[in-house]
Every structure is written in C-alpha cells, then in structure tokens.
Amino acid sequence: MSDTQAPPVRSLKVLVIEDYLPQEMLGIMWLSRAIKDAGHQARCLFLPDKDWIQKIKDYNPDVVAYSVTTGMHLYFRDINRKVREILPNVFAIQGGAHCTYSPEELEEDPNLNAICRGEGEEAIPELLNRIAAGEDYYDIQNLWFRHHETGEIIKNGQRPPIQDLDALGFPDREIIYEAGAIYRDSDRKVFVTQRGCPMNCSFCFHHALKKKVYSSTNAKYVRKRSVDHVIAEIKAVREKYNLKFVHFLDDIFNLSGKWLEEFCEKYPKEIGLPFDCILMANMTKERHIKMLKEAGCVYARIAFESANDYIRNAVFRKNTTLKQLEDAAGWISKYGIRLGSLNMLGGPGASMEDEWETVALNIKCKVDHPLVSIMQPYPMFDVGEMARDMGYAVAAYDDFPVKFNRTTTIEFEHKREVENLHKWFPIVVRYPWLMPVAKRAIRWHIFSKVYLVMYMLYSEYMVSEQAKLYAHAQGLRGPRYWTLVDFTRRVTVKGFIRIYENLFGKVARRFSLSLQMGDERVVAHMD
C-alpha cells in the first residue's frame, strides 16, 4: 500500500481457486501483489485437493476468484456452484481469458457476482475497498456485475492498459508457492518483461484484447518493464527461493533492440543464470543472437507456425518470410543455442501438403526442440471468423476440449490426419527417415491413442534434453543429469502417479460426486 493511500475500512480475505498448470501463474501473482498492497489478504487453493471444502470453510473468504480459460469454464462453473452452497454470501468473481472474450459467462452462471475483463491490478483492489467500506461498486471499469437485487447485468467499459509496469512491484510468488510446493521447489521459474504484442496474429489473444476489448493502439498496449526492475526481481527470487534456470515468457523477447542491448550487458554481470526466450523472426538480427549467447541464453524459440506463405501470412497473419525464418533459425544454431520452433497445425484452408511442408521446414532448419499446437478458434479470435467464412463448422465453446492439443474444434475433411500428425510431428522432425512411415500411419485413427503415448513420451525426452542443457550451463555433471537417466525418472514418476490414480480412483470419483458433477470434462481434467 502506498504512503498516500488510506488503509481499507477492514481487510477482506480473497481466495483464488485454480487448477494445477504446467508452470507458475504470473497473473495470479501480480493480482495478489495489488490486493496485498491495498491492505487485503490473498490465498490460493489448487485443485484437485481432497480437503478442498474444509480448507475453504477454514479460510472463510469474503471473495472467491477464478482465472478461467475456454474449455475449463464448465468445470469452474461447477466448482463455483459448490462454493456458493458452502458460503452463500461469498462474492464470486471470474477473470482470465474466458470471461474477457466471452463475458456472457456472467449471464450463464447465476452463481457469479462479477467478471473482470483484462487487467485486474487496479480494478480488483478498488472493488475490495468499496466492499469493505460498504460503498456502491457497480461503476468500476474493467468489471461487469450482476446486480444483487435486480439481477441486471451491468457492463462497464475498460480503463486504459496499465502503462508503468514497474509501479506494479514484483509479482507475489508466495501466494502460489505456499499453495503449491511443486512450483516453489522447481529449479526453473517464470519471468515476464513486458505486456502486449504489436503483432496481429489471427489465432492469438493479443489482437482481440488490443482491438476488441481495449480499443487500444500498439503505443498504449505494448509495454516493457525496465531492465533494472526485471533484474531486481530475479535477484529477489534467487535470494528467497530455489532458482537455477530463468524462463522468460515474453511473446517477443527481442521486441526492442535498445532494451535487449541493455539487458544483455547487465544480466550476465548481475544474474549469470542460463535462460531461454522466444524471438520474433522478422525482428531478429544476427547481432541479437550473438548478444543473447554471451548473456547466457541456452535455448531460443522461433515461431514458424506454417511453412506455407498463404497460411502463415494471409490466414495466421505472421508477416514473416521464409528467409527470415531460416535466417533466424540458422543464427541460433550457429551460436550454439538450442533451437526451438513453434508450429501450428489445423489452420483453416490448410491442406495436408501444407502441413507436411511445415514438417519439412523444421527438418531443413535442423530444429532441436519442435513444439507444435493444434489451432483453436477461441472467442473473439479472427481466425474463427475466417474458418466460418470458409464454410467450416466450428464447435460451440462449451464443447471446446480441456486439453487443447488433443483435438481440433474445426470440422474439415482431414481432421483426424491433422490430429495424428500432431502426435508424430516432433518425432518425424528429429528422425526424418520416419516420414514415409508417418504419412501412412496418420491415416489410421484406430491407433490414435498409441500415437498420443508416443508423443507424450517423446515430449518428456525432449524436456530431459533441455534439463541436461540447463544443468551443463550451470556446470552440473554426473548421472543425475544424463538425458536417459532424467527421462527414466520423469516417466517412472508420472507412470507411478497414473497407476496410483487407477488403483485409487475412488478418490477422484468421490471428488466428482462431492461436486454433484457428472461431466466427463471434469474427469478428463483430473486425469
């Protein structure tokens, strides 16, 4: 809380309920920072947790909050229904991607009091302060409300994106680490240096948030933290928690050449930890890669998306040439940095020949770590309208998959082949001689579960390769860091967990029954 800000009339307790995700959640951390700075309390609860109901009763929050993505919205709708049965007077608010782009969720979930669209670091503390003071709060920007008496849906406008990111302070990692020791104990922790993206990619949330939610310009929407602030945060995390590898989550780490130069000059002197990042090919210069290598970058990813010029630039709107992709990839390999690629299958209008072209581009560039997604036309994304305009049927949002990389939500002729190619993709890129086998195999949907297992195992193997790279960058040696040893450990642990779940599945069933849920999406999530 700032020196000039008056303390709240009373301190409210906020509980954020979230499912376990592959990496720590910076959005929740920043929101918690703002809540605590305003004089309130915040705690997180991760699901599944067999004691979750008792923990909610013990904490007895004034406000319960959810960060929700499309595909998980029905799951959290059921969670919220149960919470309101336990605490009928609790104020329930949802934030995150789903309600930002599908604000009608407020109308569809009668147990929600409000939703937050876009950034919440200013709106949520304002809401808490007004609730604590017993004041009217229905006019707060970024928030939509259901009036507690009339049931009327009140739709407020958006405040401009927060401009001074440094003023937000450091994300409050304690809220996540206290609730989930797995995040606290991890060697690899997530950092972000910016908000917003200047690109107009049709499949990404940025163009929808910038234009359709905020009605903003790049000048206001794309913001960067100062180098000194980023470095100070990394130092603070290293002093308090286990930290050996830094994972930068920025969409475009080389967004500003001047910022990158300052970072690469200060980071190795003041931090000196290995790190990875994502680069934009049409902004990448060879000198950027040289600087990053000298600063300690050991792994860099380039967004290929599609090798076909029409799909990549007319449909996906990447605004990159093949030469830019090949040059950036070549420079990364030249300076001994592990090369990762980001690829997208299932774009509307793409043929199987186009998809195999993308595989071939990865092979040509000798990609070390090929990452591939299945395109999903989420709410407000332009690519969804493109698909419909082309005559493709798109699934209703309630039918979107929880695990977005399993299936496509667009109905097209070669749908099953695309889903199977997704599972073969990284294996074929690394072992091109398998391409003739894969081209025949993807036609056999009966083996789709076998392909999924192959994909999951090979993905674990690539992660083990990456772990060895990070370890060697720290001077760590020995059998513990051998790729096969680490891979065996990872698969054994996950296999044990799977067997345990199968043997003691009654715990999962009891959890589902305690919610009075029968939706298979819940079971899929818990698996």
Give the tags.
Rossmann fold; 17 strands; globular; 46% helix; six-stranded parallel beta sheet; disordered C terminus; 23 helices; alpha/beta; TIM Barrel; 527 residues; 3 domains; seven-stranded mixed beta sheet; single chain
Quick synopsis:
With 527 residues, this protein is of the alpha/beta class. The chain has helices spanning 26-37, 52-59, 73-86, 97-101, 105-108, 123-133, 174-179, 181-185, 205-213, 218-221, 227-240, 257-270, 286-295, 309-315, 322-334, 352-364, 382-389, 415-430, 435-441, 448-473, 483-503, 506-514, 520-526; strands at residues 13-19, 41-47, 63-67, 91-95, 114-116, 143-146, 153-155, 188-191, 194-195, 223-224, 245-248, 275-279, 297-305, 338-345, 369-374, 393-394, 410-411.
